[in-house]
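Q: Fold this one first, please.
A: Sequence and structure below.
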Amino acid sequence: MIWVVAYSGWRVGSKADWFFGASVFSAVVVALWLALTIQRQALGNAADAVDQLRRELAAVAARSAEELAHARELHRLQGEFHRAEVEAHRELARVQRAQLLAQQQRQATIDVSRAIGAHTHTLAMLWDQGANIVRIEDPQEREQALQPIFERISQVVNDFAVELANAHVLVEDDRLHAALNRVNDAVLMAIRVAEDVHAAFIDGRTPEPNPIPPVQLLLRERAAEARHLAWELLSAGLGKA
């Protein structure tokens, strides 16, 4: 265009006007080109920014998902730990209760054995003192002399009944219940023997052979069986702790 203005023979106005117009046109073209270039660059930058934002959002979402998964796993583990801790406390309480019960059962059988010991002592006292009382001529005097001994036997039997009832309340093991019942059977037998000996002494007779030692032995054996079983139960409870 500049060549046309400078060297052609056209008369289209002054050359200065044409140069000015050409300059303006060139400036407009350059401005448009720059505008388009800037626009394309801006669009490219915007696209890059959008892609970057998408990548960052994806990374944030991934981190959030991972953190959420970790939080859920932590919550699950905390729940399991809490349940395990509660169960451990329950098991400890159960073991402690079982041990306490076993100790109480053993103590109850010891108390029963003490009552049995007192009973065997009164049976021996009945025989020893009865051997002298039987020599008294008057039956009424013999009965009066034997009365304190028999009252003592009755008191000991009552004490045994109380200890036996307490033991049955504490005991939960069927085998120990059965062992205590066998002790009670032996006591009932001893009562019958004591009544027979008492009646014989009042009649002025001395029973032959002496029925006291066998029943004393039976009482001790039955009481020892109950104590041994109670100790086994206690030892088993301690072994499970």
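Q: Good. Now the second chain.
A: Here it is, same layout.
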Amino acid sequence: MSRILAALSASALMLGASPAMAAEPDSTAQAEAPVDPARLAAARQTVDYVFPAGTYARIMNATMDKIMDSVMDSVGKMPIKDLAGMGGVDTSKLSSASLSEIMAIYDPHYKERMTLTTHTMMGEMTTMMTEFEPEIRDGLAHAYAAKFDVKQLGELNAFFATPTGSEYAADSYMIMMSPEVMDKMQAFMPKMMKQMPAIVEKVKTATADLPPPRKYADLSDAERAELADLLGISVAELEEQQAAKSE
């Protein structure tokens, strides 16, 4: 459970810390709609201001370990019944014990293990995202070029060339990871967890008219063969796996 929580939390934070990834335009769309070279050149100058090379390393090295420690601490303090409620489990008989209290019984080194796990993950993510950063910067340049014309980009760049503009641009992405912002985001997590049981019920209602997902036993021989082919295993191996699950 601890590994899953670490992976999910790290992934969520990476997405939150990487607005550039969300803004990156589709590569196919770029190929179909060439951007005006002058516009793209101005946009690249804008990106040099707002997302200079090395931005990911700054974000990860300056804030992510502290943020991950704080997030995992918050998750650990949450009542297990709130976490179980996310899966639609009946929580009426569960106590208000926290995840950390329960995990401490299974693993006396739980907190230390989680800290080492998340710090190692963040270190590897820093390396990976730094290698990928040129692609993000290129995507950002195309996004700015698609959103703003040459005149607008020129005005942005003129502002970013001023002392105030330069300081703002250099930290524009870092601001989203500041303690003041992250404190508010972390405070949202317990509220979200408490709402999850109600959300799960709404999902059940929304999908109530759909037939239930089929089980392996419901599949035809042809469908089982197709499934085995998609998984890259033989039908016999697939049958063995399914038999093991039912034991």
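Q: Anything worth noting on the second one?
A: The CA atoms of residues 76 and 95 lie 15 Å apart.
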